[in-house]
Design brief:
Blueprint lengths: L1 E3 L2 E3 L5 E3 H4 L3 E4 L5 E11 L4 E8 L8 E4 L5 E2 L3 E4 L20 E4 L4 E11 L5 E7 L13 E5 L3 E4 L3 E4 L8 E4 L2 H4 L6 H8 L7 H22 L17 H5 L15 H6 L4
Parallel strand pairs: 4-9, 10-15
Antiparallel strand pairs: 1-2, 3-11, 4-5, 5-6, 6-7, 8-9, 10-11, 11-12, 12-13, 13-16, 14-15
Length: 273
Amino acid sequence: MTTGKGSVALVRPEVCRRSQVLGTQVISQANAARLGVVSEVWADLEARQVLVLGVLEKAFAGSPRLLELRQVTALGQDAILVPSDEVFDNLDLEGLSQVVGSEVVTEEGIRLGKVKDFEFNSVSGLITGLILSNLGLTFLPGFILSTYLLPAEEIIAVGSERLIVADGAESRLTQLSKGILETLGLGKPPWLAAAASAPALPRSAADAEAEKQYEDEYGEEDTESELPPEPVPPPPSPVSEQPAWEQEYPKEEEPPPPPESSDPSKESAGDPT
């Protein structure tokens, strides 16, 4: 880095992360004095833009002084340059958010996680993406809990501690890191875990009562009308009155008796006259 009158040779990345800016030294371009380190980043989520940086003179000591991002002359990996130590001002932070820790859900109520970090343009301050994890804890590295990048264009509403994103945003996430729990198969993304554990919705009491009343009034009639008519059984076959032995061994027919004789001698012999 070289400095001169009216010129600064310092690489300023177009897109940076909040986590990369935190802890960066702030240097006065006028006298090269060290003014402190960045301790916080404030953004207007309605406008999706970073506006203010908080700077502590000593790390973890005192209250931060506020610096507008537009006052930054150059932003690098090792230092942030400002024109002078007169850039700090008593700024109103009303309506601004630290973003990190905000819950992210879709319009349908599907939870995507919490904001762990975010990306923004170092020149314009426009937020380009949110980095999500299940818990949103900044001190947990990505190899423990998986992280995902959500485009800022998905944001449709902003609350005090919650961001509403478009339906189906979970399908448009980009996975940045895979946590050890997910690698071992012991953990799932929030939207998949919620879908797997969601119980079936109970039926309302009104629906159950209406169905019971309908069955009481029409259930029996409908059941009888839908059943086919029962077939009429055939009449029973007549039972024979013959003994069993006659049915098995039928009686032989007797021959007819011989016709009576018409001999005239018998007739005359029987006549006394």
